[in-house]
Amino acid sequence: MKRSNLFLPTLKENPTEAKITSHRLMLRSGMVRQSSSGIYSWLPMGLKVLKNIEKIIRLEQDLIAQELLMPTIQDSEIWKKSGRFNDYGKEMLTFIDRHEHQLLYGPTNEELITDIFSKNIMSYKSLPLCLYHIQWKFRDEIRPRFGVMRGREFLMKDAYSFDISKEDAIKCYNRMFLSYLRIFNKMELKAIPVSADTGPIGGDLSHEFIILADTGESEVYLDKNILKEEIPNINYNDSKGISKLVDTLTSFYAAADDKYDEEEYMNIVNENNRLKTKGIEVGHLFYFGSKYSIPLEAKVNSKEGKVVPVEMGSYGIGVSRLVGAIIDAHHDDKGICWPESVSPFLIGIVNLRQNDIECSNLSDTIYNNLLSKDVSVLYDDRDEGAGIKLAEMDLIGVPWQIRIGPRGIKNGNFELLQRKTGDITEIKVKDMEKTINKLL
RNA sequence: CGGAACGUAGCGCAGCUUGGUAGCGCACUGGUCUGGGGGACCAGGGGUCGUCGGUUCAAAUCCGGCCGUUCCGACCA
Known about the structure:
Blueprint: H1 21-28, E1 32-36, E2 39-42, H2 44-61, E3 66-67, E4 73-75, H3 76-82, H4 84-87, E5 93-96, E6 102-105, H5 110-120, E7 129-138, E8 153-163, H6 166-186, E9 191-195, E10 205-212, E11 218-223, H7 239-250, E12 254-256, H8 262-268, E13 274-289, E14 299-301, E15 307-309, E16 311-318, H9 319-329, E17 331-332, E18 335-336, E19 347-351, H10 357-372, E20 377-380, H11 386-396, E21 400-404, H12 406-409, E22 413-418, E23 424-428, H13 432-439
Parallel strand pairs: 3-7, 19-20, 19-21
Antiparallel strand pairs: 1-2, 4-6, 5-6, 7-8, 8-16, 9-10, 10-13, 11-12, 11-13, 13-16, 14-15, 17-18, 21-22, 22-23
Helix pairs in contact: 1-9, 2-6, 2-9, 6-7
The protein binds one RNA strand through strand 8, strand 13, strand 16, helix 9 and helix 11.
């Protein structure tokens, strides 16, 4: 993509309404624009990141679940059946269609997926089953804030599991547990699993996944040792191995402030290993048994020929929130430093002297080379001052910048800058091919 | 939902106290120069001052209603 053709409205100054880093940077780097309180339009740059995050999630979730797509608008009837139509409260946006029928904009999908299940699955032989979708949700938050981190409309990955027994349900829960860690790992986020309250979803087993970031909303108390844990490759068929791994990972003390118990913390965690910090919740696992399967009649015939309600769990990831969380975890005073896996572009080309024929020729050559390799590249071909181009490239956080200017060309060089470290390497033009291949 | 602010050009703001036909910086358009970290100069374009009503000869400015946005708190992916 040439910068001259890209719809990328960047801002030099900070908009007053944006108080936290990720919100400021998302506005300044032209990723989103607010259309009303807690509701955002995603501009091309922001959308690219959102899609990259989705891609990572799909890759991992497809190993243990199947994707489908449920609607944003739901019928209120199933919510009345589950009892949540009244329980959910004012956060749920409801409205009436031309036939005087009450609808709602889904804040979550337990009812709908359970309804789908109940109408199509009759036998234990069809289990286990785990389904997920990535869809926009709406929760009419009292006070939306922090941009995309706490919007009213947000994109969420939500998965739902159906099993014949609690034992099987826990197996699925554990697979999700590890799948989540792998997902966040791939985004270069350190996610801490923290035991959690189940809130309005209900149930008796639940973990939150918290990203450590100074701008986070919730306080977390940790045993530092959990940060050292690596996530190995996982064989999802090995339920014993998985269960062991989850046991290990949950053996460290980790609690959000609502579950924090000072005495317990002091007793369990050695003084040198205590860490109190802030975090952002990006994922949540729930096991809730038959809470929805009973009222919504999601029942199957068991091996013994009895009709039994299925055991369920649900598993969410805040996809749009992750965009903000990643920025909070990866930025400096110049702007965003995208992890390569989610970056809107892998490589940026900055032509420092647009009207210099040698600079432009080399820039064009490298650009076309990258295009032919199908690399996502942003080529700043505008006739602007070098400072403007460099500052913008830093702001939008492209991981690798190729800088082409008269100074380097004189010696047959161009420069390669790594955004994250700021390291600049002089590259001989004749080594271009080799250098590029190393980045891919 | 309790508390507090704010609403003037795309963004950041001044003007309001003391009413008199709207201004600055950035951004934008045309031009000249410049050319390795948001450069300089010249010339331009863009605003029914959130909205409705009231007071007044006259309202961005004073008064009232409404709408919107933000911040702090209680609540959440």
